[in-house]
Structure formats: structure tokens, C-alpha cells
Design brief:
The complex is a heterodimer.
Chain A (H helix, E strand, L loop, with lengths): L2 H11 L10 H7 L3 H25 L8 H23 L1 H7 L10 H11 L4 H31 L1 E2 L4 H4 L8 E2 L12 H21 L1
Chain B lengths: L5 H23 L2 H23 L5 H5 L2 H12 L6 H17 L11 H12 L1 H4 L1 E3 L7 H8 L12 E3 L1 H10 L4 H5 L12 H17 L6 H20 L7 H7 L2 H8 L10 H21 L6 H18 L16
Antiparallel strand pairs in B: 1-2
Classes of the chains: A mainly alpha, B mainly alpha.
Amino acid sequence: MNNKTIVLNGLWHNNGALVQLLGLCPLLAVSSTFTNSLALGIATIVTILSSNILISSLRHYIKPEIRIPIFILIIACTVTTVEILMHSLFFELYLLLGIFVPLIVTNCVIIGRAESFASKNGLFKSILDALAIGIGFMLILVLLGSIREIIGSGTLFAQLDLLFGNSFSSTGLQIMPDKTFLLAILPPGAFFGLAFIVFLKNLTSNEN
Amino acid sequence: MTKDMTPQIMRQVIYAMIPGIIIMTYFFGIGVLTNILLSMLAAFLWEISILKIRKKQIIPVINNYSTQVTAIIFALTIPPLTPWWMIVLAMFFAIIIAKHIYGGMGFNIFNPAMVGFAILMISYPSHMTHWLSFDNNLNIMESLKIVAGIVNPQNWDALSSATPLSHIKTAISMGQNMPEIIKSEIFGEVAGLGWEIIGGTFFVGGLYLLYKKTINWLIPFSLLAGFLLLNVIFYFIDNNIYTNPLVNLLSGSVIIAAFYIATDPVASPVSSRGKILYGFMIGSLIFIIRTFGAYPDGVAFAVLLMNMTTPTIDYYFKNISFGNKIKNIKNE
């Protein structure tokens, strides 16, 4: 597998959220606004990157019989680190995302990449794979978050100051604040939105 | 008997609803008719476009009246003078999401009209619990302006009042007791003023459907039995908190649910025992959601919840064909 296929697979052909349909729990629960999606997406990228690096470099020392508990242990360590970092750097955002930051540990995309890629490939390819899969996942998360935020609250980029500091406004763009469709930010909206994005993806794939 | 009976059944359902529609129009004004008209138009719009996309024949579907029945039932459950875009949105979910994504007419798991209603109820709760008051003096132009969305819904707070059920819900949460609440001017002799007559008319229409054998009697009666049984029990436990069964029965859309919504032949069980369980559970759920839930009326949610269980009910309660004995399901 060359580098180009790795990147394309992660971003599109084998996208964690769209094709493998992994990690749906955070994808559906947190994607109610752009800011939440972006924050969780970045946290996921950091986690998947560090777990892939660790597992790929340790792959010759991990006994195959007990590999899964070790993977979980490594992922849990990285998630805990990410959680503590968010706690100290972005406290309000940390409160907003709540339980879903520690729950990254159960994100199947991460254990899936560890098992099927990082434990079999070299360090450079594992980093590339982690970035491709992570960014692919974050893009879908952010896309779903933007759609839901525009339809459900009529804004976009609201509360971005929690992530990037006070130079960003906390109200965001007011796109259609008086014509909102509340269902979009409720849980059903996440399912409808994701189903719609998967539908569009399948449409383009079938035509090719 | 190979002839498709669907158009005839659906036509009978529409006939049975006409007296109720007339009475509703008498009380609420032109808003009921604009609801029905707009719902029909929107339903046809989505139906025809999705049939075109799915490359299916359009005429047979329009001719079997199922779309019209969905539109009318939906139109009767939403407040009069609902703005057009809400209706178009709800009909999108009813026709395309609830009906055609599952395979179209005859394959829908959920009752399309109730999906449309639930979408609006979740998204616009304040609009959905405020109905026009009976003495609104709106002329036709003003009515049409509201429907067209030109007049902001906030401005017609003065014209609308809480439905009897949401009035009860708010009053109970404010600590009033039931005998006091019933004395309020929005209640008539038996139940909500006007609502009692509307409910009664729909009941008569339902009896006509039973007489014509268009609908099976098991679902309506087990639904009413389930609803009343729970309600009577709770009423005798504490009549200060729990609504009088008659008020509860006639004030909302229980009657419409029993005779026109829950009897939807597609989404309800096939066997007799299954129908009884299904109706009884819808009735109980309506009472439970109304009394203990956050929403003043629970018809849509009760029907949708039980729609989900229909395949399971059908699996466990099969009709026994003549000459066979009940078999153990595990041995099949």
C-alpha cells in the first residue's frame, strides 16, 4: 500500500465515519454545533495519532496473544492525557463536551486503526494513516456539526472563542436565527443528518 | 376478491371524517380548511416528486386515496392556520422519510401522518400547543396572512389560547387542583368547550366506519378501554390531580386516534389478539404520556411507539387458520 492510497483511503474511500461507520457515538452525540465538532475532532486526531505512533513503534514487543488489552491500555493513556490537557487549556469547552472526551477511548476508529494498521506497519505509514483517518473523521464531524448548527440554531461558528480565544466572537455568524428547525440539534437530527451524508457519499461512489 | 380494496376503504375514511371537519370549521374558522388544503397540496407535491425519482407510476398511488387520508389526518391534528412552511416540512417527513424510504405505500413501519405531527411537535412545541380560540374574529385576509407566514406567530398570542389539555398540564404544575381547573371558561359541559362536540362528531364518524366494516372494531375499542381503564383507576386514587376520564377522553385527539389513526391497516398488527394488545397499549400510553410526560397530548408518540412493536406483536400472535391448533412458536 503506497502513501497515496493510505491518504485517499483515510479521507474518502475508507472514511471512518462514512464507510466503516465507526465511532458513531461521539459523532452523533457531540455534533450539535461546529465548535463542539471541531473540538472533539481535534481531540480524536491527537488521540489516534499518539496511539498509532506508540503502537507502531512498540509493535515488535507486543505479544499477539495479549495485543488487544495492551492497545486499550495505550489508547486509554493517550485519551487521559488529552482529557487532562483539555481540562487545563480549554476548561469551558471541556465542560461543554463533558463525558464525550473520556469516551473517545471507546471510539472504534482508534482501536480499529491500531489493530488493522499500526500493529502491522512502520512508523511513517502509521502516522500518515492516523492523520488521514483522523482528518477524514473530523471533516465529517465538522460537516455534520455545521449542518445541524445552521438548521437547528440558525448560526455558524458560535462559541468559537472557547476554542481559539477571545479574538473570535462567541455569537458566530447569524445565518437564519429566526427560522430554526429544532429537530436538527436534537438526537434525531444527528441520525437524519448522518444518513443524508452517507447517502450522498454512496451516490457519488456508485456513479464512479 | 382480487380487486384492490384500498381506494374504497380510504374513501370511506374520508367520508367519515367530513362531519367532524365541518364541525371543526364551525368552531375554529377557515384555518381548518387551509390546513387540509395545504397538507393535500404538500403531500401531492412530495408524493409525485418521490414517485418520479423512484420511477414508479403516479396515477395508481394518487387514485388509491392513501396520500389524501394521510394529509387530512395530519391536518386535523395540527392547530388551525398553521403556516404553510411548517406543513410542507412535516409532509416532507411524512411522505418521503416515513413512507417512501421504507418502500412506499403498504411498507411503512410508522404512521406517516403521526411522523409529520411528531416532527412539528418536537420542533415547534409552543406553536403546536396553542390553538386559535373559538371567538377569534379573524377575517379571511388576516387568516391567509397568518398561513402565508407574513404575520409573525408571536403576534397572534392574543388570538390563540392553550388547548384544554395543555391548560390542565400548566395548571397542575402550578399547584391548582382538578375541580378548580375544570371551572375555567375553556371547559364546557363535559370537556373542553367545543372539543366535546368535535370529539363526539368524530366518534359518530367512527361508528359509521364500524358499521360499514371499513375498520376492525378491536383496535378502537381496546384503545378506548386501555385509555379509560387507566384513567378511571387514577381518577379514583386522587381526583385532585388526575383528570376526569370524560374530560380527558373528549378534549384531545383520543377519538381521532382510536378510529382513524391507530386503525391504519399498514402499521397495525394482523391477528385479533395482536390488535387487542396493540390498541390497549396505545390507549394506556396516551394516558401515561399525557399525565406523566412533558407533552400535553401523547397520541402521536403512543402510536409511533406501538407501530415499532407491530412486527414483534405479529410474530408472537399469529392468526390461527381454521382447523389448526395453536402451535408453540419455538417448534416452527
